Amino acid sequence: MIGLGLVILGIVLLYGHRDIPFNELREKYAPPPSSFVLIEGMNVHYRDEGPVSDSLPIVLIHGTGASLHTFDAWADQLKTDRRVLRMDLPAYGLTGPFPDRTYSIDHYVSFVKAFLDKKNISSCVLAGNSLGGQISWSFTVQHPTMVDRLILIDAAGYPTKAGSEPLAFQMAKIPVIKNIFTFITPRFVAQSSIENVYADKSKITEELVDRYFELTLREGNRQAFVDRFTIKKSTNSFQKIQTIEHPTLILWGDQDQLIPIENAYRFQNDLPNDTLVILKDVGHVPMEEQPKESLEVVVEFMKKE
User: Fold this and answer.
1) Which range marks the domain in which residue 275 is found?
2) CA-based torsion, 178, 182, 184, 185: positive or negative
3) pTM of structure
């Protein structure tokens, strides 16, 4: 018993991390042009860049465990000609958890609607990666007049089995372990999870791992990460994808192990006005792993009438 106690104490000392104070994270990860807006009792972190006169802004929505920073490279280029908005979804980044701890897709859709209403945006180009992709197509189903065209980047939505799942995702589903995860969160879990979604591991920098890891330690985010995986998923909501008539770009990394490439072809089969582009030797987050090449595809898609 003494030996076991010493092992547990050692684990806590090595891997136990306290939440990082919000102001400390804000100073590091929310310099200008970051702003905050109050929605559903949350101080939502967002960035609104580019010409305000652009009547059809591009809205970028990140995936599970990420933040608005995952679109930094895209936003830096797009904002020269287009208005670009992105936000930290509830449960991630600096926004923090939903007060009611309900992380259904419908709740995320209503959150995005509230955000766009706050920014007086009646129509936009909506782009989302992974979870953000599922939120994007679900939003388009529910609010079709608010979306001009749709960009799905390795999007979630179809029932599927991952070829390889990030370690953080696995831990968040295991009884007992998921509770420990909320206060014992080794940095290597963040690194391993990023390596899982990148095809080219050489592109993973210490700065990148630090950002994912440190934003996980924002107060409430670790519990929210676990809470999201307890939400019962709809088994037939994907059938609504066939009702979407908007021009849609389906952008996919051919080495995506989390949401396999077969799902790209399912979107292609179900969407009548689609453009499918498969990026070679790219994983689950093309806009982060291969920003230049993936953005070129987006720009070309935007030029189409």
Assistant:
1) 2-303
2) positive
3) 0.91
The total number of structural domains in the chain stands at: 1
Residue 13 is encoded by which pair of tokens?
């000392």
Q: What is the pLDDT of residues 169-212, one digit of tens each?
A: 676 677 656 666 666 688 888 899 999 999 999 999 999 999 99
Asked if residue 69 lies in contact with residue 194, where contact means CB atoms within 8 angstroms, the answer is: no
CATH label of the domain that carries residue 62: 3.40.50.1820
